[in-house]
């Protein structure tokens, strides 16, 4: 019997890596409530300089695909995120300080009287303080968001207020766009996980020339929904994956350790560019 040399079909060892691409512009839907009630999981506390801090209660829901539409996996987690105030009030002058400014200012000085119209009521009060409104441009995602939020805050709130001694100043406000951006950046999306077939032995190699089926496992999220509440502001941020890229940066080709007699055949394999 004539023995023919066998050229075996090469097995390509794939070290598969994958990257889940979540849309770069998650959809932010703001739903600002009409009340200022606070929950135990989302509090607002003002600091002495008016900067304040806002705790946002955040619930993250991951939806992972299953083998059938009814076998989807949904997991949720909750956390508290610190959010910088967007707008609020900061202390400025005492009653006697504003009174001195008014008494020494020319009667024709513009802007003073409408701003502190009742300054005389607090001229001798050394315990209370005037607070003035502000919006912080550094916490907004863009200039347009800052201008819009500042316009709305100024139109719906007084420019200056008087806060009596030991009284709590108004709670700082967080803009929906700022809240959405902050909580989105605080969430860690799980890395995708994949499986494939065929797989050979301990090396987990697949076979050159055969179709290799690759799929994501159930712990790979296809949709992420974030619900956050800070004070009277609530937002929902949703994001969905739009594609999954695979690569095999450490792939190499290897021949089987032994071959069985059979028809002579030569298979050539080369990586594609």
Explain what the structure shows.
The structure is a single chain. This protein is of the alpha+beta class and 273 residues long. The protein is 14% helix and 34% strand. The protein has four helices and 15 strands. Strand 13 and strand 14 form a beta hairpin. It starts with 10 loop residues before the first strand and ends in a 19-residue tail after the last strand.
Largest sheet: 7 strands, antiparallel
SSE run: EEEEEEEHHEHEHEEEEEE
How far is the N terminus from the C terminus? 43 Å
Number of helical segments with 4 or more residues: 4
Structural classification: alpha+beta
Overall average pLDDT: 73
Strand residue content? 25-35%
How much helix is in the residues?
A: 10-25%
Question: What oligomeric arrangement do these chains adopt?
Answer: single chain
The residue ranges in which pLDDT falls below 50 over 5 or more consecutive positions are 1-46, 258-268
Gyration radius (Cα, Å) is 32 Å
What are the salient characteristics of this protein?
4 helices, alpha+beta, 14% helix, 7-stranded antiparallel β-sheet, 273 residues, 3-stranded antiparallel β-sheet
Break the fold down into its secondary structure elements and pairings:
Blueprint: E1 11-13, E2 17-22, E3 27-32, E4 44-45, E5 53-64, E6 73-83, E7 87-91, H1 95-104, H2 112-115, E8 129-135, H3 143-156, E9 160-163, H4 176-186, E10 194-197, E11 206-207, E12 213-216, E13 223-230, E14 233-247, E15 252-254
Antiparallel strand pairs: 1-11, 1-15, 2-14, 3-14, 4-5, 5-6, 5-13, 7-8, 8-9, 10-12, 13-14
